[in-house]
Specification:
Length: 536
């Protein structure tokens, strides 16, 4: 019976926030430990990223087979991917299939955005309330809100004055949007816009793309998986997961052990062409091993990519605008595209250079830049996310001494092992904060938390926390790993570094030690009886 009917909230073992990839698996693991656990999910369905990002063209940039869960042979056997890089509708169906298969939905409360979570030291319980007034208490409070949940709307005057239709890409309407004959504006040219634009360019009457920074988009080279291929493909799953375990960020692609200038120019170009012809992230992670660490090596490859962009755009002036020169290749997330650059050869598509003339305001009829007005029927904000910390600090999470997480992180994110922050006992962060092929590390962190809770229960511990010393040592160590790293070299607009959101502390928001090291450390800490954590 619901506690609100009775007046006093029910007490659970664990509340998980978010029914995305990580949250669903975390719930599955907790239920298998016979714990009384529940997910609170803001959306009207399960899927997280794959529920919210319904814009045309939204799809995996990791291989479907390397992104999928690995924990259940039955699930691997029963689910057939229809494309090598599967699209949002199928991804959402997959996560629903998983939730149904393991009977998770009865433990998920949808349309339940967490408003506050307050730690009660006396009772060793988290008191949680959702925006619709539902209250629940829980011993463990686990955040699985993902990395890209909090939408980032630009700080532009007049957004609410626009009389036409407008939406952020991650709040795309559930019903099909009819673009036929309409004048559509897209603000932003990140990975999202680059997936979306080719999908709508053929339908719209006119498309205006407002670009501030050009990106190094690379061809995705997606293809169908025929029914006849399924069986053979499934035989590759064990090797796929093993391969991911061997790479730094748990992707399938491994860097070439040679250095860029170790080979002749001819050989180098042939190698660039070879990785260019492969699908997915080969062009990023499968490159010469120094391509992301040596500036000259990086520039050599960047030149090759710029040439590839220019080849595809007919008007040299537009090609120039689309060609990035202000940041190294791979210093920002590499977007993967299908027919993106060709869109700019269409007569009904216009590229607006915001570097030259920034947006001044949104008006009732469209977008006004410092040198022109653009009349539009629809404005699409593809302006990204307040990544990793945004969703967490928007919730009112208060730990010991009534300190909020927002206050605790005022000078930047501080954690121990990415899992806990001092002053917030029994609160686990499993947001996906290791730089990693998402699901590969989601399984690692949810397994670790489940085993930790099981260990506590077996040994009669009520509470786990970390202290300022462990937190400081870890945070300093994690920061030291990022020195000179490629991601620190893009000066602006980089959600990995928090520089896309005004006022956010500049800090690499992922753990940069790599998935292999992180996994080993997780194992070691667990084996040591949770060194650096305090159990009581
Ligand atoms: P991104 O990669 O953060 O891209 C956001 C885009 O929006 C980017 O081109 C920004 O330009 C642009 N932007 C943001 N604010 C403004 C304003 N005020 N004016 C003009 N343009 C603006 O977000 P995505 O959603 O594309 O991708 C996020 C991740 O989702 C992606 O990496 C994948 O992992 C999936 P800027 O570059 O800052 O000049």
């Amino acid at each position: 019976m619901s506690e609100s009917q009775e007046g006093s909230p029910e007490v659970l073992d664990a509340i998980v926030v978010g029914a995305g990839v990580t949250g669903l698996y975390q719930l599955y693991r907790l239920l298998n430990l016979n714990l009384n656990a529940k997910i609170l999910e803001a959306g009207g369905g399960v899927g997280g990223t794959w529920y919210w990002n319904r814009y045309p063209g939204a799809r995996f940039d990791s291989e479907s087979i390397s992104y999928q869960y690995s924990f259940s042979d039955e699930l691997l056997e029963e689910w057939n991917w229809s494309e090598h890089y599967s699209g949002q509708p199928e991804n959402e169906r997959y996560l629903n299939f998983m939730a149904d298969k393991f009977s998770l939905k009865q433990h998920i409360r949808l349309n339940s955005r967490v408003k506050s979570a307050v730690y009660n030291s006396e009772k060793v319980l988290w008191e949680i309330e959702t925006e619709d007034g539902y209250k629940v208490c829980s011993r463990f409070f686990i955040s699985a809100v993902g990395i890209l949940s909090a939408t980032h709307m630009p700080d532009i005057e007049g957004i609410s004055d626009f009389k036409g239709e407008s939406f952020h890409t991650s709040r795309w309407p559930h019903e099909k949007v009819d673009f036929k004959g309409k004048r559509v504006g897209v603000i932003g040219t990140g990975a999202t816009a680059i997936q979306l634009i080719p999908e709508i360019a053929g339908e719209v009457g006119h498309l205006t793309v407002f670009q501030r920074t050009a990106n190094y988009a690379c061809p995705l080279r997606n293809s169908k998986i025929e029914d006849s291929e399924q069986e053979d493909l499934k035989k590759t799953y064990p090797e796929t997961f093993e391969r991911c375990k061997r790479t730094f960020a748990a992707f399938m692609q491994e860097a070439d052990p040679r250095n860029t200038f170790e080979v002749s120019e001819e050989e180098r170009l042939a190698f660039y062409e070879e990785i260019w012809s492969k699908p997915g992230f080969h062009k990023w992670f499968g490159n010469f091993q120094d391509s992301m660490t040596d500036d000259a090596a990086n520039e050599e490859y960047a030149k090759f990519v710029r040439g590839k962009i220019r080849e595809r755009v007919k008007d040299p002036a537009i090609a120039d605008l689309l060609t990035p020169t202000d940041h190294p290749f791979g210093s920002k997330r590499i977007p993967l595209e299908t027919n993106y650059y060709e869109v700019y050869n269409q007569d009904n598509v216009q590229l607006v250079n915001l570097k030259e003339a920034p947006i001044e305001k949104i008006t009732a009829t469209g977008v006004q830049t410092t040198d022109n007005s653009y009349d539009l029927d629809v404005i699409i904000y593809a302006t990204g996310f307040d990544a990793i910390t945004g969703e967490l600090t928007r919730m009112n999470i208060r730990g010991e001494n009534d300190q909020s997480l927002k206050e605790a992180w005022a000078d930047g994110v501080k954690t121990y092992m990415t899992f806990q922050t001092s002053g917030f006992p029994n609160f686990f962060l499993i947001n996906g904060t290791v730089f990693c092929n998402f699901t590969r590390c989601a399984e690692v962190v949810a397994d670790w938390v489940s085993e930790c809770i099981d260990y506590m229960n077996q040994n009669g511990y009520q509470k786990i926390g970390t202290n300022e010393q462990s937190e400081q040592e870890w945070t300093e160590y994690a920061e030291s790993l990022t020195e000179g790293m490629i991601f620190t070299k893009a000066k602006t607009g980089n959600w990995f570094m928090g520089t896309n959101v005004a006022g956010k502390k500049k800090q690499f928001l992922f753990y940069a030690g790599g998935a292999i090291e992180f996994r080993e450390r997780c194992e070691k800490v667990a084996k040591s009886g949770y060194e650096g954590f305090q159990l009581s």
